[in-house]
Amino acid sequence: MDKEPGSSFPPTASKQGTAQLASCWARIRGRMREEVGEVEYRTWLRQMTLAGVEGDEAIVLLPTRFLRDWVRGHYGDRLKALWQAESPAIRRVDIRVAAGGSAGLTEPSPTHVETGLAEGLTPRPALRPMASAASEKLDRAGDWIAPLEPRFTFDTFVVGKPNEFAHACARRVAEKPNSAGFNPLFLYGGVGLGKTHLMHSIAWALRERENASVAYMSAEKFMYRFIAALRSQSTMEFKESLRSVDVLMIDDLQFLIGKDNTQEEFFHTFNALVDSGKQIVVSSDKSPSDLNGIEDRLRTRLGWGMVADLHATTYELRLSIVEAKAHASGVTVPPRVLELLAHKITSNVRELEGALNRLIAHANLFGRNVTLESVQEVLADMLRAHDKRISIEEIQKKVAEHYNIRLTDMASPRRARAVARPRQVAMYLAKQLTQRSLPEIGRRFGNRDHTTVMHAVSRIAELMAADVAFAEDVALLRKMLET
Ligand code: ADP
Ligand code: MG
């Protein structure tokens, strides 16, 4: 006999009853998800499974004691209300730890797990303790696992010589975690070179493809959380939650230098995870061997897997990065501006990105195009930091390089247009960018007369006024020299 959901369930042993219960449970989960939002749902509730209904009691399972307590405390009443809305016959919801969940810490398995329901009702196979808790921001628990940055994926990571090895290693770990020789993966390199970006990329890939539980956090958060656990005497939960993830990522490990107790805890967590075949990814601004102030045994273990460094960026990589980012922004940025940025902002990618973002924001705000002039205006402070005195030699060198002529042609008597024009540009720039007098400049260009310099300056100014492309060319040279 068919009954409407909302009255009571047919005996669960029947196929029909199972299906009905399954769809009812799916609705309850769906509603919880809507109510609490995706992040919270994934963090705490995704791993709920229904063991069955016994009399007036629904039995819900979670993989760890920690999760059970949390769900009981925070969502127990709501679960009960939702069950009652589905079926008034349900009066209680019993939230338990599933058999086999987090080794050694589970409660004895409840007998009614063998109701025959599990089959159709628990599509999430192995009990993955804390899978979601580890992978999402734990809002209420103190926000100790950082959320992943949506922008930091492999798609948006620009690969070039300086980072191709680290990138390949990251890809490898994302494709096949815990493969021999890649555990741990230790990424190191200077500030803003993409360590965090790569780590998040791995995490996104693993979460999406394998639904793996990935815990990512900074070493600082790790320490902070560990100390909080010590204080609240909940180190068991702390350990349990960390040791039950599939992948643990600790960013900026150098923070643990000199923090002996936290290092010790990390060392144990590290060993426990590696021993059970879980992947570890660590980043630092130094290589394992340079991490002075980190215990030797930890340093040694960190170096066991794959150590990959991110080198300082090259002009080519910086240019590719700003090109990619400009393209993604949808704002048209002239190539010359991109070249200028890549040329001038060399310290790290974060700063480069910041400069581009400022230009784009400025253009959007004022409804103007990004031009070389706006760069000067918007990034004056950033560029000034790089300002320096410019010599005539430098100007000659840069201009010769730019027009692909020999440096000696700057002082040669040759009058062919191919060398005469660049020479004039160099004179013009020497007048604009240095304090030298016209006769002095003339002397540096093969003992030319000061009237020749004067002529060059006015000729170039004329050409610039008449030819936009030429003007931009000269402006670019000027800006490159002003670095
Ligand atoms: P780190 O963790 O090494 O200090 P991040 O990963 O935070 O550096 O990178 C700083 C910024 O630069 C981020 O916004 C990141 O997206 C960007 N970035 C760094 N390297 C690249 C790259 N190769 N391609 C695209 N963006 C990059
Ligand atoms: Mg970082």
Rounded mean pLDDT score = 82
Reported for the largest beta sheet, the result is: 5 strands, parallel
Q: Find the CATH topology of the largest domain.
A: Rossmann fold
Tell the overall outline.
Answer: elongated
Under CATH at level 1, the class of the largest domain stands as: Alpha Beta
Ligands in the model, by name, code or SMILES, are: adenosine-5'-diphosphate, magnesium ion
- What oligomeric state is this? single chain
| Uncertain regions spanning at least 5 consecutive residues | 1-7, 101-144
Supply the CATH superfamily name of the largest domain. Answer: P-loop containing nucleotide triphosphate hydrolases
Tell me the Rg in angstroms: 32 Å
Secondary-structure element sequence? HHEEHEHHHEHEHHEHEHEHHHHHHHHHH
Total separate domains: 4
N/C terminus separation: 83 Å
Helix content: 40-55%
SS field, number of helical segments: 21
Q: Which range does the strand content fall in?
A: 5-15%
Report on this model:
- It is a single chain.
- The protein has four domains: 14-138, DnaA, N-terminal domain (GMP Synthetase, Chain A, domain 3, 2-Layer Sandwich), CATH 3.30.300.180; 154-310, P-loop containing nucleotide triphosphate hydrolases (Rossmann fold), CATH 3.40.50.300; 315-386, Orthogonal Bundle (Helicase, Ruva Protein, domain 3), CATH 1.10.8.60; 392-482, DnaA protein, C-terminal DNA-binding domain (Chromosomal Replication Initiator Protein Dnaa, Chain: A, Orthogonal Bundle).
- Residues 1-7 and 101-144 have low confidence and may be disordered.
- The protein has 483 residues and is α/β, with parallel strands linked by helices.
- The protein contains 21 helices and eight strands.
- Helix content is 53%, strand content 9%.
- The strands form two sheets. A five-stranded parallel beta sheet has the order 5-6-7-4-8, with helices on both faces. It has a three-stranded mixed beta sheet with strand order 1-2-3.
- Helix 6 (164-175) packs parallel to helix 7.
